[in-house]
Design brief:
The complex is a heterodimer. Chain A has one domain. Chain A is built from 9 helices and no strands. Chain A has helices at residues 2-8, 11-43, 57-84, 87-119, 128-149, 153-167, 170-180, 200-232, 237-244. In chain A, helix 3 packs across helix 6 (153-167) and helix 5 (128-149) runs antiparallel to helix 7. The longest helix of chain A has 33 residues, at 11-43. By secondary structure, chain B is mostly helical. Helix content of chain B is 89%, strand content 0%. Chain B contains 2 helices and no strands. Chain B has helices spanning 2-5, 10-52. Classes of the chains: A mainly alpha, B mainly alpha. At the A-B interface, helix 2, helix 3, helix 4, helix 8 and helix 9 of A face helix 2 of B.
């Protein structure tokens, strides 16, 4: 087991392995998203209260889930890099941040667009779910700005890792905000006691979309980590040999 | 037409789905661009080193 982890953490091994894994994530990801889009838009019945506007759930929930999951990936990777000084972990954290920012932006935008017809407003500053999600977007921006401001990669890794770990406290706040405080945002629908509060005709496309988004996110993350590894290893022998042989 | 209007919420629903596609396309494009740029920089550096030796 440790031998496998040690080998996986080796940049050249990871770089080649990631290239092989990407197509295995893209194909099922696209198939799942295609099925979920069709089923969510055309097969699932309209909600008895929200009508067809509820269909925004099929892009809003997966993007909100990924925005939080990506932060956890970033924080855990940064923590591993900080404690065990594994270079690949810092590369994963650095590569995950822009993706997390994009999915947080998407969650905020789709939530805002959903909020207008349902709540009568695009945005509500006093709402804990909306505000804590916006704080996470700023945490991603702060993480990327901090990395960009420090030229020394090792120092940038350490400083940004501390910020990522401190900011991780916001993830449970986002998740439980609708239970802890009064919120315009609806309560938990999927992860709750007694199981999901949705009809299976609505639930299955949503689960397929979450899985599809996760596969596609995995492919995007691996692509970004490969670029990050290549940049960090640009002066090493294996990169030179690979480029000279025309490999990618 | 029913599918487009989405019970009067078509503008909201379709905007969200289109926005999602745009975000995925941007993420994919930026990931490829970053890799290509780093790779090209390495190629240029190796060539420059080869020329000076």
């Amino acid at each position: 087991m440790w031998k496998f982890i040690h080998k996986l953490a080796s940049p050249p091994h990871f770089y080649r392995l990631a290239a092989q894994i990407v197509p295995w994530l893209v194909v099922p990801g696209l198939l799942l998203v295609a099925y979920a889009t069709y089923a969510g838009l055309f097969l699932a019945p309209a909600d008895y209260q929200q009508g067809d506007a509820f269909r925004i759930i099929y892009v809003h929930v997966p993007s909100a889930y990924l925005s939080m999951m990506t932060y956890m990936i970033m924080a855990v990777s940064a923590g591993i890099g900080l404690i065990w000084r594994i270079k690949l972990s810092h590369a994963v954290a650095a590569a995950a941040a822009p993706l997390g920012a994009w999915f947080t932006f998407l969650a905020l935008m789709t939530g805002s667009i959903w909020g207008k017809p349902m709540w009568g407003t695009w945005w509500e500053w006093g709402d804990p779910r909306l505000t804590s999600e916006l704080i996470m977007l700023f945490l991603y921006f702060g993480y990327m700005a901090l990395r960009g401001a420090i030229d020394d990669t090792v120092k940038a890794d350490k400083s940004s890792a501390v910020l990522a770990l401190v900011g991780a406290v916001n993830v449970p706040i986002i998740h439980f905000s609708v239970e802890w405080w009064s919120s315009l945002h609806q309560g938990p629908t999927l992860v709750k006691k007694g199981g999901p509060a949705m009809d299976t005709a609505m639930l299955y496309p949503l689960l397929a979309m979450i899985l599809g988004f996760s596969f596609l996110f995995g492919a995007l993350l691996l692509r970004r980590v490969r670029a990050e590894v290549l940049f960090r290893e640009r002066r090493t022998r294996w990169v030179k040999e690979m480029v000279l042989s025309g490999g990618t | 037409m029913d599918a487009l209007s989405m019970g009067g919420y078509g503008a909201y629903v379709w905007t969200c789905f289109m926005l999602t596609v745009v975000v995925f396309v941007i993420c994919e494009w930026r990931a490829r661009l970053r890799h290509r740029r780093v790779y090209r920089d390495i190629e240029v550096r190796i060539k420059a080193l080869g020329d000076t030796q």
